[in-house]
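Posted in: Protein Modeling Q&A

I'm a second-year student putting together a small comparison for a lab meeting, and my supervisor asked me to include a predicted structure for Adenylate kinase isoenzyme 6 homolog. I've never done this before, so apologies if this is the wrong subforum. The sequence is pasted below exactly as I got it from our records. If anyone can share the C-alpha cell output, I'd also love a short note on what stands out.
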Amino acid sequence: MPNAQSPVIIITGTPGTGKSTHAQLLANESPVPLRHINVGDLVKEKGLYEDYDEEWQSYTVDEDKLLDELEPIVTEGGVILDWHTCDIFPERWPDLVVVLRCENSQLWDRLEKRSYPLKKIQENNEAEIMQVVLEEARASYPAEIVVELKSETTEDLEANVTRIVEWVKSWIRERGVDS
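Accepted answer (user: helix_wrangler)
Welcome! Here is the predicted structure, written out as C-alpha cells:
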C-alpha cells in the first residue's frame, strides 16, 4: 500500500502447506511490526460467512464483508494475510505474495493428521498438484511480487522466513522507512 510504514504480505497455499507457521515465525522475526491475520479464523470470529458446509467442513465466505473488514487494517500496512486463497484481495493491497508449495504425498499426510474428510484431502491434493493457488496468484498480481517457495521441511521454513525477512529489510531501505 502506498505510504505504509510496513509492507502487506500475503502468505497463501493449499491447506497444509505451512502458511500459519510461516506467518507466525515471520511476525516474530520481522525487523518491523507485522500483524499476522489468519483470515480463516477472522471469518469465523467476525461471522464473515454466509453459511457452513457440513460435507466440506468449511465456511462459505461472504467476500464483501471480509474485504470491508480487512480494508482499514490493510490500508495501515504491517500485515501478513494468511489464507488458502489470494485472488479475492485487490491487486493494490499486497507488496509481496508468497505461495507455499508442498509435495503431494507429504501434504496428504498433513491433512490426514488434521482429520480432514477424505473428499477434502483429495480435493486439496489435486489443487496442489494442479498448482491452483500458484496460478491464482500469478493471474491476480504482478509477476515481480509473486514468489513460490517450497515448504516441506523445518529447513525450508527457516530458509523461507529468512528470505522474507531480507525482503522486508529491502522494502524498508527502498522506502527510507525507519525501523
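A couple of things worth pointing out for your meeting: The beta strands are 8-13, 35-38, 49-53, 58-61, 79-83, 96-101, 146-150. The first strand starts at residue 8 and ends at 13.
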